[in-house]
Amino acid sequence: MILTGSEIRKQVENGTIVIDPFDENQINPNSYNYRLGDHFSQVPELLSLGHKDQETNLQEIPEDGLQLEPGIIYLANTHEIIGSSRYVTLLIGRSSVARLGLFLQISADLGNLGPAHKWTLELTCVQPIIVYPRMKIGQVSFWVPTGDIEEYSGVYTQYDVPKHSIYDLLLRNTQ
Amino acid sequence: MILTGLEIIKQVEAGKIQIDPFDVEQINPNSYNFRLGATIKYYINDVLDPKVKQEVRTVTLPDDGYTLSPGRIYLGHTFEVMGSDYYVPIIKGRSSSARLGLFIHVTADLIDIGSHNQWTLQLYAVQPIKVHPGMLIGQVTFWQVIGEIEKYRGKYQGSLGPCESKIYRDFE
C-alpha cells in the first residue's frame, strides 16, 4: 500500500519517515516533491574496474542554472535527507519536469529500507535543459512492506554527495 | 497492494475508478491497456528552460501514423479520461511498445489520487518509431492507499489533450 500525502506528513511528525528539511507545501496527494541539491558530477566516458578518482570532479550547480546536454549522465543529489526504516522509498520524477524530457533515475527508482541520506539522482535529458539548484525536481513515495525488516547496510547511504557507482561491486562475482 | 484486472472492472462499475471509454477487452491480469489520443505537442525551442513558458507546436496524428524522432520530447495523451478518488494510478509502458524502444513517461509514472484527465504522456523514442492514433500504447495499474485521502487540486486538473509543462509557475 502507498501512503497518502497526509499519512506522509503524520509519519514525518512522529519520526518514522525522515525528510529534512520538510516543507508542507511540497506534499502531494500521495508523494512529496524533493528539491535538487547544490552539486553535480559527470560520469567518466568509459568506466573500468578499479576506477578511483570519480569523486574529484564534484562541481557546484550555478545559481543561474546549469545546462544539461543529451547523451550524458549527470549525478546530482536530493537537497533533502530522505529515508525510512519502516516504509519503502520510491524516488521518481515529477510530471512537470518529465514534460520537459528530464529523467531523474535510470530504471532504478527503488530505495532500500534503512538510514536516511541525500539520494543520488541520475539525470539525463532528451533535449538540452537548464536545471537550477534547489528547484523542485522530483517526487518520493512511501510504501508499506510485508515481512520482517532487515535494514540496508550497504555503502551508498554513507554519502550525502552525488555518489558514483562502485563499479567494482557490480563485477565482484564475475572473476 | 495492486488491484487485479477483475478488481479494476469491479471498481469501474462501482464508480470508484474512472476509465472513459472503458472496454473490458483492454483489461490485463493486473492492469488496463490505454490508447494513444490523436494529438501530439512538441516544444519549438531546442534548449528548455523551466523558468520560461515554452511555446509548442501541435500535431494531429494522421491515421497512417506519425514518426517520432529521437532527440525530441513529444507530449501525447491518453485517449481515455482516467482517474480515481480511491486508488493511486501508476502508468507503465507495455512491453510491446517497450521492445521497440518507446518510452511513454520520463520517470514520472505516479498519478495523484483525485486527478481526472486525459493524462499527458511523455513520449521519447530511442530509435525513430511510428505511432498511430488509438494504438494501445501503455497500461495503468491501481494501488490501495493507507492514510487519509486529500484529492489532487493541482494545475493540470481537468486537462484534455497533451498539456505542456507548467513548471515555470514554480519560479513566479
Fraction of helical residues of chain B: under 10%
> What is the first-to-last residue Cα distance of chain B?
38 Å
Give the strand tally of chain A. Answer: 13
The dominant shape of chain A is globular
Which residues of chain B sit in consecutive blocks of at least 5 with pLDDT less than 50?
none
What percentage of amino acids of chain A are in beta strands? 25-35%
Instruction: Kindly report the greatest chain-chain contact and the residue count on each side.
Output: A-B, 44 and 46 residues
Number of strands of chain B: 14
Report how far apart the termini of chain A are.
Answer: 40 Å
The mean pLDDT of chain B is 97
- Spell the H/E element sequence of chain A: EHEEEEEEEEHEEEEH
Given as residue ranges, the uncertain stretches of chain A (5+ residues, pLDDT < 50) are none
What would you call the quaternary organization? heterodimer
Keywords:
heterodimer, A: 175 residues, mainly beta, eight-stranded antiparallel sheet, 13 strands, B: 172 residues, 14 strands, globular
Give a short overview.
The complex is a heterodimer of chains A (175) and B (172). In chain A, 10% of the residues lie in helices and 34% in strands.
Write structural notes for this entry.
The complex is a heterodimer of chains A (175) and B (172). With 175 residues, chain A is mostly beta strands. Chain A has helices at 5-13, 95-98, 167-171; strands at residues 2-3, 17-20, 27-28, 31-42, 59-60, 66-68, 74-78, 81-84, 88-93, 102-103, 120-125, 129-131, 136-143. In chain A, the strands form three sheets. In chain A, strands 3, 4, 5, 7, 9, 10, 11 and 13 form an eight-stranded antiparallel β-sheet that branches. The longest helix of chain A has 9 residues, at 5-13. The model of chain A has no long low-confidence stretch (mean pLDDT 90). Chain B has helices at residues 5-13, 95-98, and strands spanning 17-20, 27-28, 31-35, 39-43, 56-60, 66-68, 74-77, 81-84, 88-93, 102-103, 120-125, 129-131, 136-143, 145-146. Chain B is globular and about 45 Å long. The N and C termini of chain B lie far apart (38 Å). The mean pLDDT of chain B is 97. Chain A binds chain B through residues 1-8, 10, 28-31, 65, 67, 70, 92-105, 109, 126-132, 135-136, 138-139, 141, 144, and chain B through 1, 43, 46-51, 54, 71-73, 75, 88, 105-110, 112-115, 120, 122, 124, 143-152, 154, 156, 163-167, 170-171. Strand 1 (2-3) of chain A pairs parallel with strand 14 (145-146) of chain B.
